[in-house]
Amino acid sequence: MDKLKRKISIISIFSVLIVFFSFFIIFEKEEILVFDNSIPVEEFRVAFIADQGYGPHSVAVLNLIKHEETDLVLHQGDFDYIDNPEKWDAQISSVLGNDFPYFASIGNHDVKAWGTIIPLPQPIPDLQLNWGGGYQEKLENRLEKNPEIECVGKLGIESVCSYNNLLFVTVAPGIRDGEYDHYIDKQMSDSNFNWKICSWHLNMNAMQIGKKQDETGWEVYDACKRNGAMVVSGHDHSYARTKTLIDFKQQMVDPDWPKSDDLRLKQGSSFVIVSGLGGHSIRSQEKCFLTSENNECNDIWASVYSQTQNANFGALFCTFNVEKKNENASCYFKNIDGEIIDSFSITNFT
Fold it and tell me: What does pTM read for this prediction?
């Protein structure tokens, strides 16, 4: 009887804690980040990778990131593929150091070791606890070592961060339930940051050149486009970049800005990049061939690099505020052989 009473007491206490934390989560104020325009903008470089893996190719990409004097990494999901946050974080630290600013969106291969999550009945959001040595805790630890970077929200799942005059959102459409389009609009619609990036892992079929199917919904893509934010994803193990688009679903190139090597960002115009050659494997192109006579993808793709093109692993690098001008950025994809596969500029009208 005493054991039963103790068990009931423990369950009761745990239930009260769940209700308390749930109440806090539901009614906590969502902070909107603001850029201090009095601070002079400086050039900075961001590396974009996804589908990393654990091994020599992954390390080679990290060494490339170090060699290119990168200031920050945005990882679009799928980490080590072995569900081992300790080894994954150690692999990064072995090249970049344990305090390097490294941010990521959850991938479908990261769910099992992400962290402690207690499912709760709807409409109460799941209770997420950042302990237990999961991937999210590793990301939180790196954030704590970079106080100049401000983040709010559930890091890697539904969060917004600021670095210099860049605002980037990491969300999890198709992996975790959430109204991510509303979240993106709320964080970006009244933002005064010059540069905005949407980062997630999965794709819509039309927004990649492999076999991936519709998994995110168009809502998140359209929310980013509405706010003049570039979209970067992974999942397909290739590199692909569109031209400037005014309609993602209908695959419509911006008629006022149709260039392949010069893109623009403005409310209603954006572009999509898949940077999935982080080190795990390389897949072939299955559609949207640039030489296709039937123009199957409306000629939206400006660059494609996959097994079909004898691709090697690498990363996309973007330098923002070129010549300290907050409307200019320049980007290139470089592989671990040192070859530049794609290069383009971005003009920002937001």
Answer: 0.88
